[in-house]
């Protein structure tokens, strides 16, 4: 059995002194797609921010590739190959689609690799090729999400962490985005996905964790959790 690529060990996170994550542990193995699902306020996004050192008020341990990263700066974590696509997208709105994408390759020096990555993103999201010269501010919410994901892919991540990528998108664009995530999974990319869209997330994931009020209350394969009565009742309305 290979070692986990990402290990989150019994982390506890506080906001303004108040506990919001209570001893959460999870693992992501190389090539896996793992999702963390739960209702609003469960603490899903907080876990990703803790991995990226964007949330420092925590106890526990986080390891990536066997190396402890909970005491490292965010920039050092990114250079190890951990890429986080936040819910807020955080695009440079006056810049073009292509300029935003190229900013994601700032840690690469090989121009040929950068060109190949850009072509990969345009193949994954064809409408971004059509809009490559447009300012990011002129794009729809779904197109901006594609740019955010594409920018993350430009740096050759070892793990891609996606925070609520479908939030606020039309059903058609949600399907398009999830299709792209499935393609990335088939490419062998390791993905940690935080999502409110429980059914689709579990269907595409190898394993999943169910978070409730800052605690992992269930874990298992995506198929197992989809068939679990408590998950179906709580999140699928069945």
TrEMBL record:
One of its GO terms (biological process) is L-amino acid transport. CDD domains: ABC_TM1139_LivF_branched. InterPro entries: AAA+_ATPase, ABC_transporter-like_ATP-bd, ABC_transporter-like_CS, BCAA_Transport_ATP-bd_LivF, P-loop_NTPase. Pfam families: ABC_tran. One of its GO terms (molecular function) is branched-chain amino acid transmembrane transporter activity. It comes from the Bacteria. The keyword Transport applies. Keywords: Amino-acid transport, ATP-binding, Nucleotide-binding, Transport. Gene3D superfamilies: P-loop containing nucleotide triphosphate hydrolases (3.40.50.300). Residues 6-238 form the ABC transporter domain. The keyword ATP-binding applies. SMART domains: AAA. Belongs to the ABC transporter superfamily. This is ABC transporter related. It comes from Syntrophobacter fumaroxidans (strain DSM 10017 / MPOB).
């Amino acid at each position: 059995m290979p070692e986990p690529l990402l290990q989150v060990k019994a982390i506890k996170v506080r906001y303004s002194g108040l506990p919001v994550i209570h001893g959460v542990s999870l693992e992501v193995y190389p090539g896996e797609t793992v999702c963390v699902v739960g209702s609003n306020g469960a603490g899903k996004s907080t876990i990703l921010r803790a991995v990226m050192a964007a949330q420092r008020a925590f106890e526990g341990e986080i390891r990536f590739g066997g190396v402890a990263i909970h005491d490292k700066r965010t920039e050092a974590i990114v250079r190890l190959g951990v890429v986080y696509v936040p819910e807020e997208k955080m695009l440079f709105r006056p810049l073009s689609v292509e300029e935003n994408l190229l900013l994601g390759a700032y840690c690469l020096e090989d121009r040929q690799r950068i060109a190949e990555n850009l072509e990969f993103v345009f193949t994954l999201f064809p409408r971004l090729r059509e809009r490559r010269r447009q300012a990011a501010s002129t794009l729809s919410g779904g197109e901006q999400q594609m740019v955010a994901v594409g920018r993350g892919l430009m740096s050759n991540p070892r793990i891609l962490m996606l925070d609520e990528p479908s939030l606020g998108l039309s059903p058609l664009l949600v399907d398009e985005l999830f299709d792209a995530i499935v393609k990335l999974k088939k490419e062998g990319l390791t993905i940690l996905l935080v999502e409110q869209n429980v059914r689709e997330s579990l269907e595409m994931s190898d394993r999943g964790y169910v978070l409730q009020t800052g605690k992992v209350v269930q874990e298992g394969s995506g198929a197992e959790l989809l068939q679990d009565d408590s998950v179906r009742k709580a999140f699928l309305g069945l």
